[in-house]
Structure formats: structure tokens, C-alpha cells
Amino acid sequence: LLVSILISQQLLADNKEFISLTLPVIQIAEVGNKEIGFWVEDKRQSNMIGKSLDEKEIIPNEDVAAFLAAFIRSDLSHANYRVRPYSSDQSGFVIELDSITYKVNKAKIKSTAEIKITFTLKVNGATSRQKYTVSTSKDYAWKPTEKNKGELLGEALSSVWEATLKSDQVQSLL
Question: Are 143 and 11 in contact (CB under 8 A)?
Fold first, then answer.
């Protein structure tokens, strides 16, 4: 019985591919001098973002919401904003990650990978929530590596922040 449990656990582990997130080193926010709070929440039911060409489940090693929050905090701080803990009764916003999907299509000698993220933006004091979808895709010789997938997910997450910054409601806070 113990041997069959160990074999089952190994088969499950062999069916997963864990990737490490890599965010691009870019400054997105324009220079400001205000205080702002924000929160990023992962509303997804599963950590899996899709399947590789080998049919392995792709799962980020890091907490995606915490990773995006750290990126936003760093970007705002470098742009001279004073970032404080989020509070619903002060100037701020919430990003809810609704879905993250990874898709790859294989051609003869290349493949195209795409990551699509759907998220909801709620700005304190606003009467409505805004829904966004961003996507990032790249072509690869043969198939994307684990590193390529982590970089692509990082680019897609930075696109979430770019779209958030372009929102008229967020612009009014900054």
C-alpha cells in the first residue's frame, strides 16, 4: 500500500511543471507625490494556468497576487509615491485576478505561447467596477522553456499594471 501511494504521488508530480516568475525591469508609473493604497487579490480557483505541449499542468512557484503587488509597490515607490496599506475608506484601488490562462500552439519548428489575464479593477469611491483582459504572446523556436513561461507570465502581469494605470479612475487618484 505504501509503495502504491508513493508511485501515485510521483505520477502526480511528473504531470506538473513549476515555473518561476520573472518581471521585466521597467518603470511604468509616472512621477507623483501622493499617498496611495492598493490590494491585489487572486480570485482564481486553481493555481494552474494551463498545460504545456507535453500536457503537464503549469503552476507558478510564487503567489501570483503577492508577486504583482510587490511589483506595483516597487514601481509606485520608485515614482515617488508613498504606498500605505490598503483601506477601503481612503484613496486606493483593488485588482482582482479573475483568470490566468496559458495556451501554446505548435507548428513545424516553432511554437506560439500566449498568456491571457482577466481582472477586475475597483477604485475606492467609484460606483462601478471595470473588467479588463490583457494578453501577451511570443514565438519560440521549438517550444518554450520553463524560463520562457515565467518571463511571459511576468510580462502579462506587468500588462495588468499598465492597464490599471491607464484607467481614468486610477488616473484621478494619481
Answer: no
Alpha helices in the chain (DSSP H): 2-14, 64-78, 146-166, 168-173
Cell 503567489 sits on residue? 63
Cell reading at 11: 505520477
Cα–Cα distance for residue pair 110/51, rounded to 1 Å = 17
Cα(37)–Cα(39) distance, integer angstroms: 7
Contact 153, 167 (CB under 8 A): no
Q: What is the DSSP string of 95-123?
A: EEEEEEEEEEEE-SSEEEEEEEEEEEEEE
Q: Is 69 left (phi over 0), alpha (psi -120 to 50) or beta?
A: alpha
d(CA 95, CA 76): 15
Query: What is the DSSP-derived secondary structure letter of residue 92?
Result: E
pLDDT tens digits for 64-112?
Answer: 999 999 999 998 888 888 998 898 888 899 999 999 999 999 888 899 9
